C-alpha cells in the first residue's frame, strides 16, 4: 500500500498508570518506540495490555505522559489527535447498515475541514486501504453481512485510511485465519518499513509478536515483567513464570524465538 509519506513520529510513554474501579491495572509503564518501530504488548489475560493501549490512544484516564513525535497527546483535541494516532479496538462496534466503503471512508474524518465532504484524495486513501486488505470485493457490502475476520479487517482498513503516524492495534489478528494473519501483519510491517509508521499492538500469539515486533513489553498484573528485544523477553523461563504455561522456545533461522506449547502428562 503506498500513500503519502509524512513526517515520521515516534512514541514516548513515561510512567503510565491506569486505575479501573479503584484498582491499578497498569503501573509505571515506560517505553519508547522509534519512528517506524513496532512494539508488541504481551502478557496473560487481564495483565493490562488493552488498558495500556487505550490510555496511549487517549481513551482511558491515566497518569503519566504519552508523547507522539514529541507532542503531548493529552494537549491535543480529538481531531488533532486522530490525525496522529489511529486505534483499533479488540472488538470494534460497527454500524450494521453502513457499507464497507462508507465505513472505511470515515477514517478520513479527521482530515476533512468542518462540514467538508470527502474529496478525491480521501476516496483514494480509502480505496488504497480496501485494496491493501483484500477488501475491494466487499466494498458495497453492509457491515452486518460480514464474517468476524472480515469485520476485523474492515476496522483496520478504517484506521489505515486515517493515515496516522502511530497505529495502536488491540489483538489485530484474533479473528483471522492463518493466511489473513500473515497478510495483515505483513501489510502493517510494510507500512512500518516504507512509511515509518510507528506501531504498538497487543498480541496473544507470542511467536507472531516475536516475528514482527522489534521490541516486546511483557505485562504481568499491570507491571512490566520484562521488556526488550524478542529473544530476551520470549524465554521459557519468563513464559512459564508469567503465563504458567509449559513451552519450548527455540530460535528460528533469523534468531527470533518460536514458541511451541508442550502438553502435560
Ligand atoms: N471497566 C472495568 N472496571 C474494572 N476493572 C476492569 C474494567 N475493565 C477491565 N478491568 C480489569 O482490568 C484488568 C486489565 O484488563 P485489560 O483488558 O487491560 O487486560 P488485557 O491484558 O488486555 O486482557 P486480555 O488479554 O484478557 O484481553 C483486568 O483485571 C480486568 O478485569
UniProtKB/TrEMBL annotation:
CDD domains: ABC_Iron-Siderophores_B12_Hemin (cd03214). It holds the Pfam family ABC_tran. InterPro entries: AAA+_ATPase, ABC_transporter-like_ATP-bd, ABC_transporter-like_CS, P-loop_NTPase. GO terms for molecular function: ATP binding. Keywords: ATP-binding, Nucleotide-binding, Translocase, Transport. Residues 11-246 form the ABC transporter domain. PANTHER family: HEMIN IMPORT ATP-BINDING PROTEIN HMUV. This is ABC transporter ATP-binding protein. It comes from Streptomyces tremellae.
Amino acid at each position: 500500500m503506498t500513500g503519502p509519506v509524512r513526517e515520521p513520529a515516534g512514541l514516548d510513554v513515561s510512567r503510565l498508570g491506569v486505575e479501573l474501579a479503584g484498582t491499578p491495572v497498569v503501573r509505571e509503564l515506560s517505553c519508547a518506540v522509534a519512528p517506524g518501530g513496532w512494539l508488541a504488548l504481551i502478557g496473560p489475560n487481564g495483565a493490562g495490555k488493552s488498558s495500556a493501549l487505550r490510555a496511549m490512544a487517549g481513551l482511558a484516564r491515566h497518569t503519566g505522559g504519552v508523547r507522539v513525535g514529541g507532542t503531548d497527546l493529552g494537549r491535543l483535541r480529538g481531531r488533532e489527535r486522530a490525525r496522529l494516532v489511529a486505534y483499533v479496538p479488540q472488538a470494534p462496534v460497527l454500524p450494521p447498515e453502513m457499507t464497507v466503503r462508507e465505513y472505511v471512508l470515515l477514517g478520513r474524518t479527521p482530515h476533512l475541514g468542518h462540514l467538508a465532504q470527502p474529496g478525491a484524495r480521501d476516496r483514494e486513501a480509502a480505496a488504497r486501504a480496501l485494496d491493501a486488505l483484500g477488501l475491494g470485493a466487499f466494498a458495497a457490502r453492509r457491515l452486518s453481512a460480514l464474517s468476524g475476520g472480515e469485520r476485523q479487517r474492515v476496522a483496520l482498513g478504517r484506521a489505515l485510511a486515517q493515515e496516522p503516524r502511530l497505529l495502536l492495534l488491540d489483538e489485530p489478528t484474533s479473528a483471522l485465519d492463518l493466511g489473513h494473519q500473515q497478510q495483515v501483519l505483513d501489510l502493517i510491517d510494510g507500512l512500518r518499513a516504507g512509511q515509518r509508521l510507528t506501531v504498538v499492538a497487543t498480541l496473544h500469539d507470542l511467536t507472531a509478536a516475536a516475528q514482527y515486533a522489534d521490541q516486546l513489553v511483557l505485562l504481568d498484573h499491570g507491571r512490566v515483567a520484562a521488556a526488550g528485544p524478542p529473544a530476551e523477553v520470549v524465554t521459557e523461563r519468563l513464559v512459564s513464570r508469567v503465563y504458567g504455561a509449559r513451552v519450548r522456545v527455540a530460535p528460528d533461522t533469523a534468531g527470533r524465538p518460536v514458541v511451541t506449547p508442550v502438553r502435560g502428562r
